Amino acid sequence: MVEKLSQTEYLVRDELYSCLESLFEECSSVKVFRTLQDYSGNFDEIYNEYVALNLKNVEQMLADYFLDNVMLEGNKKVEHLYYVEQPVSTYLKFEALRVFVFNCLGHKAYATTLKGETDFVVFDDSAVVLLDFTKEGALKGGFLSTKPSDVQIALAEYDKLKANAVDYLKMVPAETTTKNGVNRKIKELKYNLKLK
Questions:
Q1: What residue segments make up the domains of the chain, in order of their start?
Q2: What are phi and psi of 171, to 5 degrees?
Q3: What global pTM score does this model have?
Q4: Quick one: DSSP state of residue 115?
Q5: Contact criterion met (CB below 8 Å) for 169 and 102
Q6: 92/32 Cα distance (integer angstroms)
């Protein structure tokens, strides 16, 4: 998609993280499209615990993720759209647990069988970031554009990919026992924090 954009500034990983954090804080709506089937090239502590079958640790870490984000994301409208190919990868099976937590945070998550060119994030109508990963799924950096016409190109691509999407957890169900454990922990947190 980078060749379709008229304004692109490449940011290396550390610059990109700062940019994403800043854009997220300032926006009210975020749309994320993911096309890779495995992001374990980045150090993902929760996924590593999942693969090692340390599921009690996974439950606690996902509950901690909820706690870390519940106050930050209160009024934001966040959508996640994943390309899912068959057979479903171990990473995307794990991601179903994270999607369950996303749902608890008020996010929407969808799965599509339409494959996009690249992972990207759209912030309101103000910015689009194309994410640049290694083939192992490690984030290297990304291309940023704040040009309105480029943002519209990205939004049109997102809408096209989402056209026949389904709820993520219908296509990739979360493993029941771990999901139930995470749910219990989140309900306890909500009760203790007096959250609805």
A1: 2-190
A2: -85, -40
A3: 0.93
A4: P
A5: no
A6: 15
Q: For the chain, how big is the Rg over CA atoms in Å?
A: 17
Question: Residue type for 134, please?
Answer: T
Contacts of 31 (CB under 8 A, 6+ apart): 78, 79, 81, 121, 122, 155, 158
What's phi and psi for 23, nearest 5 deg?
Answer: -65, -40
What digits encode the pLDDT tens for the residues 57-100?
Answer: 999 999 999 998 886 666 789 999 999 999 999 999 999 999 99
Sheet holding 29-34, edge to edge: 9-12, 139-145, 127-133, 119-123, 29-34, 77-83, 108-112, 166-167
Q: Encode pLDDT of 149-164 as tens digits.
A: 999 999 999 999 999 9
The structure tokens listed for 196 are 């609805």
89: nearest Cα among 172, 27, 8: 172
Nearest to 114 by CA among 80, 172, 162, 167: 162
Whole-number Cα distances in Å, 139 to 16, 131, 132, 133, 189: 10, 7, 6, 4, 32
| Tens digit of each residue's pLDDT (9 = 90 or more) over 104-123 | 999 999 999 999 999 999 99
Residue type at position 88? V
Which of 2.40.50.40, 1.10.357.10, 3.30.300.130, 3.30.870.10 is the CATH number of 2-190? 3.30.870.10
